[in-house]
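One chain shown below:
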Amino acid sequence: MTVKASDVLAAVERKRGYLLTYHRMIGSSDPELLAAYDNFYENLTLKPRAFSAKQRELVWAALQVAADEEHGHIHLRRAVKAGLSLGQITDAVALAGAAEAHRALWFGYHHWNEWVTVDAATERYLKICEAARGEIEPGLAETILAVCHGARRTYDAMRLHLRRAFPAGATVPQMSEALSYMLLPCGGPTLIDAVEIWEQEAKAGRCLAPYPV
């Protein structure tokens, strides 16, 4: 049966409450593709998976900062609708900011390691993360930080947070869900590399595995 562009676009608008420019473009030229994409999007980030609605939107808030993605207003509206306070949303943004501090501390360690040791740099970085997380529970905070570093391709720090996330209470399905969000703002290649880092850490026995390895 042929799918009509107008029907698919109307269905997407009813479900989402809006139409984006790329919805209109894809829907006009390939309505079946838009219908398939909309189903994928709904399953990726709207239907309940391992996270609660609040947890999901905390991850999204931090990820969009890490990805330099300013077109994230819909997730902030969803965060408020899920019951998050403005302070909790800001905590997620603060975690993304804390992740950025890792670059400066690792710069000091790599270039001036006679004066800035790896232990000292790590200690100070983790203090910044702890101060930033606010009301966010430790396991979720570590998951958010792992995702931020995956998005930024700062893999030394991603490895650190993968090792800390599961002892702090994160689960494999939660880490998998959080990383899967990267498909939209960061793309498949970035997600491939992030999951490879997770697999490497698991094979080395430093964290739980994403799948049998």
